[in-house]
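Human
Can I borrow your eye for a moment on a structure tokenisation matter? Give me a protein, with the fold worked out from its sequence. Write it directly below this note and I will take it from there.

Assistant
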Amino acid sequence: MPSSRRMILGHVVTDLSSKMNRTKKLGANIMETPLNRCLNTFDITLLGVGHMVGAGIYVLTGTVAKEIAGPGIVLSFLLAGVTSLLAALCYAEFGTRIPKAGSAYVYTYISVGEFWAFVIGWNIILEHMIGAASVARAWSGYVDSLMGFAISNATVSTVGEMHEQLLGRYPDFLAFAVCLVYSCLLGVGVKGSAIFNSLFTIINLGVMILVICAGFYYAHTENWTVGKGFLPFGFTGVIAGAATCFYAFVGFDSIATSSEEAQNPTVSIPIATIVSMLVVTVGYILVSAALTLMVPYWTISTSAALPEAFSSIGLNWAKYVVSIGALCGMTTTLFGSLFSLPRCMYAMASDGLLFSFLGSINQKTQVPLINVAISGISSAIIALVFDLQKLVEFMSIGTLLAYTIVSASVIILRYRPPAPEETVVPRVGSVTTDDSSQSGTELASPSSDIVELVTAGRLKPGFLWLSPLIGNCEPGGAVSGAVFIFTCFSTALCIQLQLSSHELRVGVWWTVLLASFFIFCLVGCLLVIMAHQQNTVGLRFKVPFVPLIPALSIFFNVELMVHLQALTWVRFIVWMALGLLVYFLYGIHHSKESDSITSYSILMTSSEAGKGKWGSMHSTGPVPVLSPSEEKPPPTTKAPKDVSTDDKTPIVYEEEVTQ
């Protein structure tokens, strides 16, 4: 090993040992939270399953099968499930890295900066608020259909109809009340509401198994072959159906949101994410297959698909069992949205980006009660007046954007050289007061890990021929640029596939040439990313095949966004304009990002901890490898100070940053 490399490794080892006690205390601070750490892996898994298995299976299935995809809804759920699973793997890795509430908001904050974190957090608020309202509206519609539409008829005769395109046909007072009632239940405490959610989720899963078994027993294969066959709306209908079915999978990020209330987040979050995604994806595919095999797709009821399907084949008893499961499923989905929304608001307010009173926790219940109240009232008002279908479309765009940035962030952090403190923070897996469990032997990285830290973000030896092109970039900088370019060309290719699909099928030369150019650029970006060394030190769970899986997640998310309606984009732009007003008039002036030590600062590189308000995708990596003529003697090492909770000294000393 060259003398310069030995010197660099020596510096890193010395720095790690000198800051061991400081990092141990800071790592403990990350696990400290005013929220109540009381949820185990089983609780969190059922939270994710319950959030996903609700209105999607009992309401959305009928609409997509009858009007969008036909029996091809099976492929729509498969495509939406695979797309969500790719994003879920990225969430699982971040849950291992960062055991904090806030989900994609926190992940973006750590990786690409405050401004983009606010954009994602603002969209997550929209996602959960509309998610709660849409499920409450579906819950109300389901009860109304079981009662022979007595509720809607009474409401229309009393207050009349609303004749606006975006609004519902009538004000839904039952949906309004449901949001308020469930918000009150969430205010009693996390553990009690989690038990309530687990019970309803288990009932819902039992009903799903009954539907699958009965549906396949009474299946008629000719329902997939008569008429226009399995794909009556073509493969375009399958993709459009997947964009709508994606709504059914958005609940898995409630798992990541519960990180700060998990007993052991670095273990529970990855397991709960993957298990819940697999269970829900398989369940949705089997239920949709059973439904379309049991009755012809054109006879399916859009308001109560499964109960009406069982009634049509003479199984009236199954209609009532399915109705119970539907109400339980939509209850847990509503619970998941109302659980996640206050915690995202809490995370953003704790960073100064939203109003400070939203960052308070009730000392008795250890729940952000003010946020719960605001979330319940806001969701109730939206459910009162807006139409269900418009809410579902509006919700998907913010969710897809959040998933896209989380997937990009996984790539960026994998190739970013960390500060020495980051090598040990991920090893803080559970709250413990036993100092022996944090011994220097366990915390110190082996030599292979230190080599990985030094080389992270730099070109691999086999790709040094790229040095004239990207050799002058900071470690990790070229990867960040490549991820941005990959996202832009993915958007361009998806738009072309949407607008010029017919020309591509018939082989018009300019469309083929343009698509080939986009694909060539995408492959080139992946090559640039793979040419760099990764940093996986301390990760208990890693997304496999990076950067391929996160890149596929980015592409699929963009493809689904392109298939959303133009009016959905207009509403999204209006929502973002409102959010930017909040950020520039309040958040940017009260941001805590520049504080020397925050709850995130030990998870961020030294350059991020003090960066400007706009955030950055650049980082200052470990000590650069110098040529023999450029080598300098190591600086005088300052003795580490004892760290207290109000210590404001920087984590990385100034001379280490400027070296």
